[in-house]
Structure formats: structure tokens, C-alpha cells
Known about the structure:
Blueprint: E1 12-25, E2 38-40, E3 58-61, E4 72-80, H1 96-111, E5 118-120, E6 123-125, E7 127-133, H2 135-138, E8 141-142, E9 148-152, E10 158-162, H3 166-169, E11 171-173, E12 176-183, E13 189-194, E14 199-203, H4 204-207, H5 220-226, H6 229-238, E15 240-260, E16 293-301, E17 307-319, E18 325-332
Antiparallel strand pairs: 1-15, 2-3, 3-4, 4-7, 5-6, 7-14, 8-15, 9-10, 9-15, 10-12, 11-12, 12-13, 13-14, 15-18, 16-17
Amino acid sequence: xxxxxxxxxxxxxxxxxxxxxxxxxxxxxxxxxxxxxxxxxxxxxxxxxxxxxxxxxxxxxxxxxxxxxxxxxxxxxxxxxxxxxxxxxxxxxxxxxxxxxxxxxxxxxxxxxxxxxxxxxxxxxxxxxxxxxxxxxxxxxxxxxxxxxxxxxxxxxxxxxxxxxxxxxxxxxxxxxxxxxxxxxxxxxxxxxxxxxxxxxxxxxxxxxxxxxxxxxxxxxxxxxxxxxxxxxxxxxxxxxxxxxxxxxxxxxxxxxxxxxxxxxxxxxxxxxxxxxxxxxxxxxxxxxxxxxxxxxxxxxxxxxxxxxxxxxxxxxxxxxxxxxxxxxxxxx
Length: 333
């Protein structure tokens, strides 16, 4: 058996390629007051007060959450910073503590500090809705420049916000790459997309205008002040028409160039390579006197000569002293 050591400066290369899927979320998921495909997480007050505080978030499925065939698509929640004008004690059901905790958690995840505030359109935005796509939806990350969210509000009644141009204009933070969502792709900023985390941030006062009714009979301002997170999220789902994006799976590959030069790999240690008279069988009884072999497989070994991987060629490759061969072996992970 012949072994050859790689020259890592020229025989080994690393590369990254991507695979994308189109994801379109619309339909009954965003119907007003629907709960058929929504899973609620109740937060019950302690001690003698057993009032339902509305939970911290809602999970949206493509079918009933109780069905074994349903798939979780994304989580939706709302939060405000400690410096928000709405961060005043109103009622127990206002979920004041929960809203602050949600905002601080997302600030920690994306901004790197729970005390920081999201900045959109060059201003601090202490009140935000957060859409967190599940890993099975956004994969390794969301593809830059592929996100479009169709919203409805009082003015205009319906509009699209997208991240057009983000593939070359994104920014980087501790939470990964992000870019603004802009009105019709080129207008004013109304939100942000955090690609690696799979999170869309929509400040309440930018994404929606003065909507007469947000949830039930209350306005968005009233719900932010005294409503539960569930009420705010229910209103959110009724004021979003559609979400489109491309997910992205990053394939990390190592390519090994297995080079067989003219003077290499022309003989075999297999006993059948020679006949009883120790003559090479491929030249015995033939007018071709030059030795030759046929490459069918390539093995990768570690420093201790342990076989790690085997690559098979689709057809044998002839090797002789007057030929050279390069086999390109690629490992994806």
C-alpha cells in the first residue's frame, strides 16, 4: 500500500457554499382572533392571585398545535425597555414585569447587553414586537435581501417592508448580522432583520400608524399600557398579512487534491499483480511492456495511518509512468 502526505498549503482548500429555500407564511395564521394554530403559554400569578397574566409569548404552527403532523413556525412576543413611557404600574394584567423581561432578553441576545435599546431609523425604540423564527424554518440563517413583510395599518392601509440591498449593506453586532426593514424596500426604516438569530424586530410606533382598534376594543397604545402580551400578540397577528423569506443552510467543505504524479502509484502490493514468474501481469504476454494500474478508490488517513474516509471514483482511472492523475475529494459538514 502506498501512502502520500498532503502539502496543506496547496493540496487542501476550505470553502463555504449555501443552499436556500423559499419560505412564505400567510393565510389563516394571520387572521384576527384566530387560535386554531396558536399555542399559548399562560403565566399565572402567584399566591392568592390566580389571574392569568397572559404569558411571555405565543407560538404559531402551520396546523393545530395538538396535531403530531403540525410544525412550529415562529414565536411572537412584545416587550419594552425599562425606560419606556409605558413602564408604569397600571394593573396586574398589564404584564409589566413580563414585558420588561422579554425586551431585556432580546437585547441581551442581539445587542449583547440587556440594558441597551434597539435603534431603528436613527432613534431609540424602547417598545418592540419580536418575531423569532424556529430553527427548522430559518436553518443556519436567513438569506440577506430576501425578507418581505406585508403589514396593514391606518396609514397606509397596507404596505410592504423589505430588506432590499441587505446582501451588501448589512451590519454586524454581537448578535450577528442585521439590516433594516424599509418601507417598500427603499423608504424609511420600520424594523430590523437579525439574520443569524432568525429574528425580526418591529418597533410598535414605526411599523403601525394610528390604528383605531388593535385587539378587542383597545388601541395599540392602550394595549401597550395596560394589556397583556397575549392581547398585543393577537393584535399583531391581525395586522400582519404575509411574511416571505429565504432560509439558508451553510455547507462547510474541505477539498483534498489527491495528486498522483508520473512516477507514483504505478505498482501494486497486491500479490496478484505479478504472476508465478514474478512478471507483472498487465505486461505478461502483451506487447505493452509498461506497468500500469487502475485507480478506483482514494482513502484518507490520519497521522497514525488510521483510515478515516474512502472516496470511490465513478470509473477506473488508468495510471502509468507517462501519465498523472488528480482526484478531487470533497468532505461536507
